[in-house]
Amino acid sequence: MVTPADRPEIRAWKPDLAGVREVFHARFANHAYPPHVHDVWTLFIVDQGAIRYELHRRRHGALPPNVSILPPHVVHDGGAATGQGFRERVLYLESSLLDERLIGPAVDRPDFPDLDLRAQVAALHDALISPDRELEAETRLASVIEQISASLGQPGPQGPLNATVDQAEHLRALLDAHLFERVTLASAAAAVGAGPTQLARSFTAAFGIAPHAYVIGRRLEIARDRILGGQALADVAAEVGFCDQAHFSRRFARHMGISPGRFRRAGRASPLPVEASAHTGDQLPA
Q1: pTM above 0.85?
Q2: Quick one: 105 exposed, middle or buried, by C-beta within 10 A (0-12, 13-18, 19+)?
Q3: What does each C-alpha distance from 106 to 100, 113, 149, 179, 201 come to in angstroms?
Q4: CATH code for the structural domain at 4-151
Q5: Can you give the pLDDT at residue 243?
Q6: Structure confidence at residue 282 (pLDDT)
Q7: What is the pLDDT along the chain (286 residues), one digit of tens a residue?
Q8: What is the DSSP letter of 232?
Q9: Do 67 and 43 contact (CB within 8 A), yes or no?
Q10: Which of 15, 127, 175, 265 fits a disulfide with 136 by CB distance 3.0 to 4.6 angstroms?
């Protein structure tokens, strides 16, 4: 008899992000993947339990602290390593994202005990859930690809240091000019003449904030002004570049510590009365 605890929990979707064919989140109690191959790279992390798998006739184990990557065109299987099942998050990445010369090293070393890389992969999954975090997802994907390439023995190209400030300034001007539009890191990098990861790193080094965080902060700054000006919240959300009011409200509350509705009501309240200074007798501005 199959109990509710035995039933798999699966969520899969195709994100609007170049290079990611599919996002797959699942919890399996007792499922085992039969031997199979993909024509894409399989990048996954285990959140609960453990996975035992065979890759090119070699046994491996995937545990929560690790990041694992299975190369395209190589036979593998997989199943729970314990009786508790497992929970995983998987990205199927187009083969063009990683050099095919890394297939051999990935067969030899498919598991990375790298906590920073794991945090980056987890953050990428979080960004892919929200449609209004496309620039963040793209930036994080570029960083993850660079880290995996380096872990497999192929460091990414480094641009000249004296070009980074100009690149950052160019990107900021581009983001400001298209603040409410969808700007991809790939298109910005092509316009600036830099690699995507290099460009994002240059921006962060110059301004102390990642490009996607800069855009969100600017959008919310303008949203505050429009809310206090009396615009409807749904209109504000649409006009400043959020996919819908729900996503806008979550972003606003995370940034400000208060919902847009409460912020609007607070803005309508009367300002504090003018008080007299106990030391000078002068009036202090409200």
Answers
A1: no
A2: middle
A3: 10, 14, 10, 39, 26
A4: 2.60.120.10
A5: 87
A6: 39
A7: 556 677 899 999 999 999 999 999 999 998 899 999 999 999 999 999 999 999 999 999 998 999 999 999 999 999 999 888 999 999 999 999 999 999 999 999 999 999 999 999 999 999 999 888 899 999 999 999 999 999 999 876 555 544 588 899 999 999 999 999 989 999 999 998 888 888 999 999 999 999 999 999 999 999 999 999 999 999 999 999 998 899 999 999 999 999 999 999 887 764 555 444 344 443 333 3
A8: -
A9: yes
A10: 127
CA 259 distance to own-chain centroid: 23
The answer for 6, left when phi > 0, alpha when psi is -120 to 50, beta otherwise, is alpha
Please list the residues that pair with 276 across neighbouring strands: 283
Phi, psi values for residue 45, rounded to 5°? -125, 150
Could you tell me if 223 and 263 are in contact, meaning their C-beta atoms sit under 8 angstroms apart? no
Decide if 75 contacts 35 (C-beta within 8 A): yes
Q: Walk across the sheet containing 20-28 and list its strands.
A: 9-13, 20-28, 86-93, 41-49, 67-70, 111-112
Cα separations in angstroms, 243 against 130, 238, 250: 9, 7, 12
Instruction: From the options 1.10.730.10, 1.10.1470.10, 3.30.2160.10, 1.10.10.60, give the CATH code of 213-268.
Output: 1.10.10.60
Tell me the two tokens of residue 276: 């007299």
Beta bridge partners of 88: 26, 46
Residues 246, 249, 251, 257, CA torsion sign:
negative
Where do the DSSP E strands lie in 100-153? 111-112
Domain boundaries, the chain: 4-151, 161-208, 213-268
